[in-house]
Amino acid sequence: MAAIESFDNIYLDLSKESGKSRFAENGLGWKPAGGGEAFTLDSSNIGGAQWSRAARGYEVKILLRSSGVVQLDGFHQEDYERLSKIFKNWYSVNLENKEHSLRGWNWGKAEFSKAELTFNVQNRPAFEIPYSEISNTNLAGRNEIAVEFAGNDGGKSNGHSGTGGKGKKASAGKDQLVEVRFYIPGTTTRKEAEGGEAGSDADEEEKNAVTLFYDTLIEKAEIGETAGDTIATFLDVLHLTPRGRFDIDMYDASFRLRGKTYDYKIQYDAIKKFMVLPKPDDLHFLLCIGLDPPLRQGQTRYPFVVMQFKADEEVTLDLNITEEELNGKYKDKLQSHYEQPLHQVVAYIFKGLANKKVTTPAKDFTTHRQQYGIKCSIKASEGFLYCLEKAFMFVPKPATYISYEQTQSITFSRVGGAVSALSTFDITVHMKNGAGSSQFSNINREDLKALEEFFKLKGLRVKNEIDDDTNLIAAALGDDDMASSDEEAVGPKADRGSADEDEESVDEDFQAESESDVAEEYDSNHESDGSGSEESDVDNRVDDEDDDMDDDEGEKRPKKKKKTA
C-alpha cells in the first residue's frame, strides 16, 4: 500500500465545491479543487468511521474523539475495500457499513449519541443531525418540540464546521433546512431517552417524554446556560415583538431570551441596528433591536425585537466580569457597577457587548405636543412613527425601517369621504427602483407643517396633495353656491313623491259631473244628468251616509263613489 492514498471529486460535509481527499498514516486532508482553505484531521482524533449511501454516491462519516463529525461524500462503491484497509491499518478503526432506512416512515425512535441525534426507523437510521448544526430548541406544544438549525453566513464557508461555530456545514448549501419538529407523546426515563433498556432501573423517576428530550438535547448540543457565564440578567422584561415577557441573559458573544414557551439565542453579530425610542406618553421607553438573520418562530419572522421599559424604573446592577476583562477587552465599553434607569442600563450593556451604535430620534423634529413619536397606523395596526437621522422607524408591530437613501418621494394625502378627513392626513413613502411603498395613516393635521419642514431639511422630495384637494373642494363649493342661488330664483316645488301626484292628477270621470255631488239630490235636473235608476239609488244611499260629514269630506267621498260605480 502506498504511503498516501488520494481520491478525487470528494465533497467535505455539505460543500458546494468538490476537492481532493488524501489519506496518510498520520491523518487525512481535503483541499477544494478551485483553491482555498484546506482541512486536515490528525489520526489521533479519529474515534470511528461509517460507510453508507449518500447524496453524491457513498459517504465516509468520521466520528471524532472531540464530539464532532466529519463527512466525506462522493466515493464509489468499489472504494469500500480500499478505504476499509486504510482505516484498519493506519487508524486502527473498523469502517462500519451502515444501511439507512428507506421506508419513508415519519414514526420512529430518536437516540442521542456522542456527536449527533439519530432518528431510527426499525433499528436503521433514517437521518442524523450533528449537534454542531443545532442552534436552538423550543417546546412548541404539549407534546411537540422544535429543533432549529443555525443560519448561513452568506455561503462563505467551505462546508466544514469541525469543532468551531454552529451551522457552518449547512451554510455551504444552496438551500437550507431551518427547522424540524418532533411529536413525542407519553412518559419515559432518562436512560430510555439516551438509548438504554426500559425497566433497567425501577427506581428511576418517569418524566414527560418531550420535556426529557428537550433537556437532553440542550445538554448534548450545549445550547443552554452552559454556553458561558452570564454577564448580566434582566428578569421579566416586556416584549412587544415577539409578544410576551422574557428573561434576558447576556453572555460574552450572545444573549438569550427565555420565555415560558419559547427560548431564543441570538448572536451579537446578528444585531444590525439598536434604537432607543421614547414613547409619546412620557412613561415608557422602547428598545428596538434590528436582526439579520431575523428571529424565527415557526413560519413567522421577526426582523426586529421591541422591548418596553418604564421610564422611572431604577436598577442597581453589578456585572459578572473580572477586573482584567473590564480593563482589557471591555475597556471604555462597560462599567462594573450601574445605578441608573433600567432602559439606560440595558442599552449601555448591549452597546458595550455588541459594539453597536445606539440610535435615537432626530432632534430636528418634534410633534405639536413636543414629542418625538407620531401616533399613526399601518393598515389596521396602530403604532408610532419616529423620524431618525437617517431613516423612518415604525413600532411596535409591524416594525418597519425605511432608510432615507431608499426613499424616492413622500406624498401627503387625505382619504376622501372620511369623517376625520379634516383633522388627519396620510403619508405615503415611495421607494426607489420600484421597491413598493408604505402608507402611514391617521396622522394629526397639526403635525403637517413640522413634517414638511423636516423632510425638506433632509432633502426628500415631497408632494402635498392636501392643498390640491382643498383648492378643488373650494372651487366645487363655489359652483354649488351659484347653482343654489339660481334654483332659489326659479323656486321649484319640493319633490314630495306620490303626494304631488295625488294633488295634480285629474279624475276625468269626476270632472264630468257637477262640482257638488251633495247638491245633486236637490237639483231639479238631477234625473236627466244621471245614467239610470240604479245609479240614482246608489247616489242616494251614499248621500245618506255622508250627511254628517263636513264639506271637505263630502267633496272627496263622491270621488270614491264614482270610481267604485
Could you walk me through the main structural features you see in this protein, from its secondary elements to its overall organization?
This protein has 565 residues and is an alpha+beta fold. Strands 4-3-2-1-7-6-5-8 form an eight-stranded mixed β-sheet. A seven-stranded antiparallel β-sheet has the order 20-19-18-17-23-22-21, with helices on one face. Strands 26-27-28-29 form a four-stranded antiparallel β-sheet, with no helix packed on it. The termini are far apart. It comes from Neurospora hispaniola. Residues 152-165 have a biased composition (Gly residues). Residues 371-465 form the Histone chaperone RTT106/FACT complex subunit SPT16-like middle domain.
Q: What keyword list fits this structure?
A:
single chain, 565 residues, alpha+beta, eight-stranded mixed sheet, seven-stranded antiparallel sheet, elongated, nucleosome binding, DNA replication
Helix content: 10-25%
Which class best fits the helix and strand makeup?
Answer: alpha+beta
Task: Please report which band the strand proportion falls in: under 5%, 5-15%, 15-25%, 25-35%, 35-45% or over 45%.
Answer: 35-45%
Radius of gyration: 42 Å
Mean pLDDT: 78
Shape: elongated
Question: Helix count, per DSSP?
Answer: 12
Q: Quote the distance from N terminus to C terminus.
A: 131 Å
In the predicted model, the low-confidence regions spanning at least 5 consecutive residues are 153-165, 482-508, 510-522, 524-556, 560-565
The total of beta strands comes to 33
What summary fits the major beta sheet? 8 strands, mixed
Strand order across the largest sheet: 4-3-2-1-7-6-5-8
Pfam family, one: POB3_N
Family: Belongs to the SSRP1 family.
Main location: nucleus
InterPro entries: PH-like_dom_sf (IPR011993), RTT106/SPT16-like_middle_dom (IPR013719), RTT106/SSRP1_HistChap/FACT (IPR050454), SSRP1-like_PH1 (IPR048993), SSRP1/POB3 (IPR000969), SSRP1/POB3_N (IPR035417), SSRP1_DD (IPR024954), SSRP1_sf (IPR038167)
